Amino acid sequence: TTAEKQLKEKLLQQMKEQDAILVSHYYVDDDLQDLAEESGGKVADSLEMARYAYEHKASTIIVAGVKFMAETSKILSPNKRVLLLDSEAECSLDIGCPIDEFSAFCDEHPDRTVVVYANTSAEVKARADWVVTSSIALEICTYLRDRGEKIIWGPDRFLGSYIQKETGADMIMWQGSCIVHEEFKAEALLSMKQAHPDAAVLVHPESPMSVVDLADVVGSTSKILNASRELPNKKFIVATEDGIFHKMKEYSPDKEFIAAPTAGSGATCESCAQCPWMKMNDLQRLERVLDTGHNEIVIDEEVRAKAERSLKRMVDFAN
Ligand code: 13P
Ligand code: SF4
């Protein structure tokens, strides 16, 4: 609509005036993904979001995603102003891994290297030796295994189990999960696969192992998206949050994308594979944040500096 177009133009203008870019995750609203690119920012997986914001010269980074993503940017770029569209945009993995309990768990196993998923608080990152995202977890855990290190993994138990299976690394695990991906159902997916034998199955590793076992490609949002572009298949069954379909359809308008089932009945559930926190991001919140400067990320300097060490290890490893 014209009103929406005018709003987007206003937001782009404001970002320009404030030397700001919008960096977006694939799971947020389509309009925000488009606006991120128009602002000079990027739509990306969680590792690329962090690296992009870190390397970009803009002095303000606005994050369309969830809290841990904005905190990650702030940890890496303490001199930038980092804003989150909704301060309530959480993640079940972060919520399910409180620092005191996690730290006590680590204290019980002082001989182990602590590897945490990026979907955690700044405090948990500060307690860790390494931070990883889904796109680099396998490589880093393989590296640690080869060095003979034993691992404490947290918080996603499904991603942890997948890595353990792939690498054979010695890992003990915190029992967290993503409330979105844990809902995918293997039996129903198998029926769907049989109904569409020509489809490639793409799965995010936060899904249960039984679902991961049925995948043709397992990986981060970026990896899944790339597979949808590069594989010769014309049809894909996709087990991740449904925001990903925006870019998949943009890159491959002639291909068919089917949401993997989240209900045991075999019926696809249009609204199940949606992250309630990712869906808090919208144009109205962006407008409010630009008008008011609210939701700026502030992290205690001691915590930040410690978290930076474990995050930088990942960034350096990736380079
Ligand atoms: P990616 O790192 O694959 O983007 O996944 C992060 C995530 O779980 C966002 O919800
Ligand atoms: Fe967290 Fe899952 Fe939402 Fe990602 S999709 S932010 S892992 S709850």
UniProtKB/TrEMBL annotation:
Pathway of action: Cofactor biosynthesis; NAD(+) biosynthesis; quinolinate from iminoaspartate: step 1/1
GO CC terms in record: cytosol
Class of enzymatic activity (EC top level): transferase
GO biological process, one term: 'de novo' NAD+ biosynthetic process from L-aspartate
Pfam families xrefs: NadA (PF02445)
Record has Iron as a keyword: yes
Cofactor(s) the protein requires to work: [4Fe-4S] cluster
SUPFAM superfamilies, per the entry: NadA-like (SSF142754)
UniProt-listed Enzyme Commission number(s): 2.5.1.72
An annotated Gene Ontology molecular function: metal ion binding
Protein name: Quinolinate synthase
Keywords, ordered alphabetically: 4Fe-4S, Cytoplasm, Iron, Iron-sulfur, Metal-binding, Pyridine nucleotide biosynthesis, Transferase
Cited InterPro entries: NadA, NadA_sf
